[in-house]
Amino acid sequence: MKGNLLHKLGWDTILNTMLAVSGCMPELFSVQIERNGEQERTSAFSEEKLFTVCRDTDRLELDFIVNIHGSGTLQVAEQESSQVLWQGVVRESAVFTQSIGPLKKGRGYVVRFVAGTVNHATITAASRSELIRTAA
What we know:
The chain is α+β, with helices and mostly antiparallel strands. The protein is built from one helix and nine strands, in the order αβββββββββ. The radius of gyration is 15 Å and the shape is globular. A five-stranded antiparallel sheet has the order 5-4-7-2-9, with no helix packed on it. The chain has a four-stranded antiparallel sheet with strand order 1-8-3-6, covered by helices on one side.
C-alpha cells in the first residue's frame, strides 16, 4: 500500500514537499491552489488566492512550486482591475522564482491558475518578504 501511495504522488511531489519542509522554501507567505481529477470536470476552471502588501514596492519575489498533470496558465494580477502583472504557461512540474511589481499598498492582488481539463494540479506560491500579507 505504501508503494502505491508513493507511486501515486510521484517524485516531483515528494521532492517539492521535502524542499518546503526543509526550510528551503519561504515561510512567511504561502498560498496553495489545488485541483484533482476526482472533482467535477469542466471545460475550463480558474482558481485564485488573494494577498496584499503593507507598503508600496517596486518588486516582490514569489517562489512557486508547481505539481501538475496537464497544463494551464499561472498569473499574478491586480484583483480589482484584473491587470495581469505576470503570467506563464505551466505544462510540467517545476520549482521557480518570479519577480513581480510594482505593487501598491491598499490594493488586492491574486495568484491565479487558469486551466482546461487537468488530472491534478497543486500550485504553491510563497515569499519571505515582510511586505506581503494573506487577505482574510
